[in-house]
């Protein structure tokens, strides 16, 4: 006769398989991680707004006698081919790079919000026309579409902002359209319609607050991506003109000396990675917070 397995046997096996490393981080670890993330974001914001506090030197000061100095005590990030301090240029380059990323994200979110609201709340023909436009823009790779827009508008900071903003707008429009349709079918919106509220009041008081939250969370994720795209365009020589301390332009200037002066490309590249990681982690935290609130509500 075969033995009948105990009902709590799977639970015992699951407890035996658990290891300390597989457990989810506790509230204290999560809170510490959040504070570290916010501290990194504060340092990046300080470098973007007040770079002179972190690096009081002149990012454009040339000293040929100090060219190609390796990282050391006097020059933490070394010097470039003109003797300029790479640390000072990286810190002062946070302002242009963050400005381009933030401006492009604001432009993309604004255009995406307009398209998303028109397609999500408009009539069927307007939804069909807007959706086909968004599909056509999404069919192009983002950088390819940005290069096409820069070819039409011209290089420079303004051209990069417009190109990156327009390239990211279709993704925001698709997300907001889906959120608007989801919220419009919710119970509290149906109750507002039954109470006789005007369509404008329903959109402003009920639809927009529920639909814009996920859009803002994704926009935080998109900020890091916009900075990476703008740096890529700057690397191609389509962004801020030299000798401006912009991270993509610094990568372009250092590529010739990558084997002999690696610090000219490594440290601007690390700055781009740091901004992308911080923005991505903040966006994920915000998305998880909004998802938790929705589940709790």
UniProtKB/TrEMBL annotation:
Signal peptide interval: none
Subcellular location: Cell membrane
UniProt xrefs under InterPro entries: BP-dependent_transpt_permease, MetI-like, MetI-like_sf
Keyword Phosphoprotein among record annotations: no
Recorded topology in the membrane: Multi-pass membrane protein
Family assignment from sequence similarity: Belongs to the binding-protein-dependent transport system permease family.
Keyword match Transferase: no
The name this protein goes by in its record: ABC transporter permease
Region (Disordered): 1-25
PANTHER family found in the cross-reference section: OLIGOPEPTIDE TRANSPORT SYSTEM PERMEASE PROTEIN APPC, PEPTIDE ABC TRANSPORTER PERMEASE PROTEIN
Domain ABC transmembrane type-1 positions: 94-283
Membrane spanning residue stretches: 32-54, 98-121, 133-151, 157-176, 215-240, 260-283
UniProtKB keywords: Cell membrane, Membrane, Transmembrane, Transmembrane helix, Transport
PROSITE patterns referenced in this protein's UniProt entry, alphabetically: ABC_TM1
């Amino acid at each position: 006769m075969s033995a009948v397995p105990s009902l709590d046997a799977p639970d015992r096996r699951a407890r035996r398989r658990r290891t300390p490393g597989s457990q989810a981080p506790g509230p204290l670890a999560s809170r510490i991680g959040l504070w570290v993330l916010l501290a990194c974001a504060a340092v990046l914001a300080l470098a973007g707004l007040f770079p002179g506090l972190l690096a009081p030197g002149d990012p454009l000061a040339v000293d040929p006698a100090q060219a190609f100095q390796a990282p050391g005590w006097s020059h933490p990030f070394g010097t470039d081919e003109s003797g300029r301090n790479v640390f000072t240029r990286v810190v002062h380059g946070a302002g242009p790079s963050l400005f381009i990323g933030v401006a492009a994200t604001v432009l993309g979110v604004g255009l995406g919000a307009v398209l998303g609201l028109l397609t999500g709340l408009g009539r069927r023909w307007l939804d069909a026309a807007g959706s086909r436009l968004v599909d056509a823009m999404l069919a192009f790779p983002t950088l390819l579409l940005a290069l096409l827009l820069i070819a039409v508008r011209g290089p420079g900071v303004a051209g990069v902002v417009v190109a990156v903003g327009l390239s990211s707008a279709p993704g925001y429009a698709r997300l907001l359209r889906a959120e608007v349709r989801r919220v419009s079918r919710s119970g509290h919106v149906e109750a507002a319609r039954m109470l006789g509220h005007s369509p404008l009041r329903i959109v402003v008081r009920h639809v927009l607050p529920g639909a814009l939250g996920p859009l803002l969370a994704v926009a935080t994720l998109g900020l890091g991506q916009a900075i990476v795209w703008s740096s890529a365009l700057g690397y191609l020589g389509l962004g801020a003109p030299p000798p401006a301390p912009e991270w993509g332009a610094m990568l372009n200037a250092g590529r010739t000396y990558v084997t002999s002066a690696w610090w000219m490309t490594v440290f601007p590249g690390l700055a781009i990675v740091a901004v992308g990681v911080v923005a991505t982690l903040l966006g994920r935290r915000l998305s998880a917070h909004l998802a938790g609130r929705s589940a709790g509500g």
